[in-house]
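Quick log. Single chain, no ligands specified.
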Amino acid sequence: MSPVRTTLRRAGLGTALAACAVLTAAGVASAHVTVHPDSYVKGATDGALTFRVPDESDTASTTKVQLFLPADHPLLGVLVSPHDGWTAKVTDTRLRTPVKTDDGTITDAVSEITWTGGRIAPGQYEDFDVAFGQLPDDTATLPFKTLQTYSDGKVVRWIEEAARGDEEPENPAPVLKLTSGTGTSAAVKTSAATSTASASDSTARGLGVAGLVVGVLGLAAGAFAVVRSRRAR
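-> predicted structure:
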């Protein structure tokens, strides 16, 4: 193999490795249904949760999402944000144990939200927003079991819960952690989560730019080596 071809091959390999490093550092979104933020203060009021649903299929679109809210530790005052192309059906259930609040006793709570009518194409995701008036204060975790239906009829059941210390199951349910903090409102928690997400996005973009710079420098070095090789000949 000639010195020129060897130099160009090395330059191209360096560029490819730099691009691969950028993609790895930027990371890939979780392939399962997740809840954001992933933690809130126990008993937090007037907050919101975002459920991110990615489409894992290579050929089928997601056409239906069923979210089940825990009835044993209910969320009070649940409201669903309108979502373009999707219709939300909200189902209430009678609570076994009524919840006493400053505004009176609550006997019913939302137990299921079903979104239909829209489509999540392969390789894409949708965020579904749910607001709440108050979170429970008598538990450390809130699992939100979810069923995801595809256009080919396949149903993925995101319902598995991992015991403490166990590895994440194959089809985990999104879980919200409830902490014992004080003096931190739901709005502050949401703002902090948003800031963290923005910082992560900025970091990923910065790594992407750095990778492109490395790639360009690699090509420039290769071209310079080619010129030197030709002059030497």
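Helices lie at 3-26, 186-232.
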